[in-house]
Every structure is written in structure tokens, then in C-alpha cells.
Amino acid sequence: MTPQVYQFKVLLAGIQPLIWRRFRVYSDVTFRQLHNIVQIVMGWENYHLYQFFWNYNRFTEQLMGAGDKRSSHVLGKFVTQPGSILGYEYDFGDGWHHELLLEKVLTRTRKPCPICTHGRRACPPEDCGGVWGYMEMSKAMKAKRGSRYREYKEWLGGYYDVNAFDLAEVNEQLADSKLWQ
Hints:
Distance between the termini: 18 Å
CATH architecture of the largest domain: Roll
Low-confidence stretches: 57-61
Largest sheet: 7 strands, antiparallel
Mean pLDDT: 88
Order of helices and strands: EEHEEEEEHHH
Number of strands: 7
Structural class: alpha+beta
């Protein structure tokens, strides 16, 4: 049986303007593979623990996390209907909460999977202090002057463009990565 294609929209909760991506995966990916795909499409560097939640925003039931034997379970056994929402938390210290909305279920696609089809804004740098730290850093980087700007620029190793998003680069990483296979 050919797996279905799931189209998700993932957004990083708590940040305005929104940081989001739209991507497609096969329904037979495992949660570990889905984690690795989300890492690539969002721009994270896979340094920290993670966990998924089922029916995020309605009731929270922990589904699985890093090192959990259930992370080998197949996505399509849990998520089947458009409108379903998975919660995904990455980096328990910074507490990056994501919502993965299943937008569409397709029976086939001409494009390879996984693939990122759209997105907006740059992913926050690892270990920048969660939503609060990111907002402070973004404010300083937009100002392009002052001591906080110089501190962040040095820490980041250069200028950080909060609006940067390179779809082609994300898809190149997905195509090259063996993490999700």
C-alpha cells in the first residue's frame, strides 16, 4: 500500500510576526524521522531533547520524546485527519513550542518527500534564551547599533537577519540528509 502524503504547517508559538514552514512528508514516517525533518525545515541544529504532544491546545497527552522507544511509531497511525494538531517541543531549557497542523492529506504527489514548499522568517539561533531572549536579540539586531547589537553580533558570528529564509537551501538539506530516512 502506497503511503499518503501529509501536508503540515508548522509554526513557532509565541513569536510575532510568525515564523512558519509548510512541508510534506509521507504518512509512514516515524516520529523520530518527523523530528529530524522538523529540525531541518525550521533551521534548528538538533542539539536538544524533544517531545511530541497529541491534540495540543485541546488536551495534552505526551506522545513520545527523544529516546522513547515509541518514537519508532509511524505518524499515520496517530494522525489521519486534516485539522489534526501535533504539539512539538524542542529544547526544554529554551522551551520552543511548535504547532504542526495537518492541512491536507494527498494520495500522491509529483514532488519528492519530504519537501518544504513555503516558509517565512529565520529560525531563532540555538540557545538564545527562548521567546523572550529571541525577542530581545531581534530588537537589538534590527537596531544595528548599540552595545547589545555588538554583543549579539559577536555571539552570533555576524549579522542575523530575522527575515531570512532560504527555501532552496532547506530542500537541499532535506535531499542530502539521511537523518529522516
